[in-house]
Give the backbone structure.
Amino acid sequence: MDKKTKPPTIADVAALAGVSAQTVSNFLTGRFKPRGQNLQRLEAAISELGYRPSAAARALRLKQSGMIAMLLEDGADLSQERMREGWEPLHGMFLYGATNRARELGYYVTPVLTRQGTAEVEAIRLVREGRADALICSTELMPEAQLERLQRIARTEKVPIALLQENRKRDFICSVSAADEDGGEQAAEHLAALGHTHVAVMSVKPAWPGPVRRRNGFEAAAARLGLSAEAWEADHYTVEAVRRRAAPELARSDRPTAVFAVNDVIAIALMQQAIELRLDIPKDLSVLGFNDLDVASYVRPALTTLRTPGAAMGARAVEVLVDAISGKPLTSTSLLPIEFVPRESTGAAPGT
């Protein structure tokens, strides 16, 4: 490569700014910030030369890879039975938020698809091979024993780990979750404000902790608001199972006037069954979902729902881990707010 085309170095910046190379290095790493003319000359030299710190050089100097691995259970590997337990397709939002925030902080996020029950095996391999400075794991459908093994890895390998969708405090690990219970409360409050007094919440069994928290929040708020609340549970997390369970309830003359579904897929299946029974949504029945998947705004009527802050959860996990990598104490829990998204599927209670 011709000398004139080589990327600028710290020495080039120092020569142009009239300071020592150590001063430039200290400025770039944040050890101290020069003042007055020195600061102005440094910033001008960096801008004029187009200098960019070398990620490879930083990795060698700090013995860090500059990588954060996000362990995601491969959806293609999920058994039909586990899909029926309530797997929610939020991985894309987690990865989007984490990747963008990491780039802003000078790191990279690499997704690692794991087979069922192998997250801790991949975690140990990545850390011991020096391929990741920190780990993000989505805990959806992850059994307690596996979570405990990840906790031991964080302690013994001294690697910061963030768990997405986990809201319990755990030593050596940061938990990042949405305020699911608060979202359930918002759902009940919305329906009460529309005049509904007889409502239902629909979920599946068994369910992972997120939907359980949503249901608990809804039922607690319904009791506080004096609403009569029924609980409907489908056998599996499939459109067919939801419709089969909802059909006899929706056919009743004394059916609830509104239903809160613990996620959007359940809500849309419920709407399909209601429309087949010639119920008008929302005149005869209001339906409210959770997550705000892309499809929620395209169905007709468009689904009123509560938005899970998936991208913000990914970004927050990265922020906590980067702080931990730099030596700051690991934040134990982060709970992010849920956003209410009003659309067309909820309306005033019949007769009000």
Q: What stands out?
A: The two ends are 78 Å apart (CA to CA). The first strand starts at residue 67 and ends at 73.
